[in-house]
Amino acid sequence: MVYLENDAFLNELVRMFSKSKVKGNGTVYVIMKKFDGTKRAAATTVTKKSSGTGKQKKTQKVSEEPTPAHACLIRAKLQNRKIATFVPAKEVNRFQLAYCSVLRGNMDALKKTKKNKSKSVRRPPKYLNFLHTLCGSLKVMFLY
After folding, report:
1. 82: number of Cβ within 10 Å
2. Is residue 88 part of a domain?
3. What is the pLDDT, as a whole number, of residue 115?
4. pLDDT at 113
5. CATH of the domain at 101
6. If you write DSSP's letter for every residue of the chain in order, what string do you get?
7. What is d(CA 92, CA 100) in angstroms, rounded to the nearest whole number?
8. 69 found inside a domain
9. For position 26, what pLDDT does the model report?
10. Within a domain: residue 130?
11. Would you say residue 105 has pLDDT above 80?
């Protein structure tokens, strides 16, 4: 995976979108997630208990490095090409505006979904209306 600066990431993302349109056989996957300051998962160690149960206990090493302020990790993938960038909290607004403009410019190949028209209230046939009015008037006559 290639880690790029924010502007270089957006330029490469535009190239990925154009390649997927030209070839017609690719989908660009974009993932956004919270970045906690580590590039890899913490290493785990497996220790066996000396008792006869044979259960294993996993422990994780905690990194003592201070984590930076809140950041966002953004990854993009097209076939076997992967790129990523880190967006610090101070630059999120500027990056989000540029990212939205890139997405709006490249989402022209989406297919429209067919909407089912809601059925209007069914009106009963005219002869039922006549019977209803006739029976209604008969009920009125019998009540008095």
Report:
1. 12
2. yes
3. 79
4. 81
5. 3.30.720.10
6. -EE--HHHHHHHHHHHHHHHHHHSS--EEEEEEEE-S-SSPPPEEEEE-SSTT--EEEEEPPP-SPP-S-EEEEEEEETTEEEEEEEEGGGHHHHHHHHHHHHHHH-TTPPPPPPPPPPPPPPPPHHHHHHHHHHHHHHHHHH-
7. 12
8. yes
9. 82
10. no
11. yes
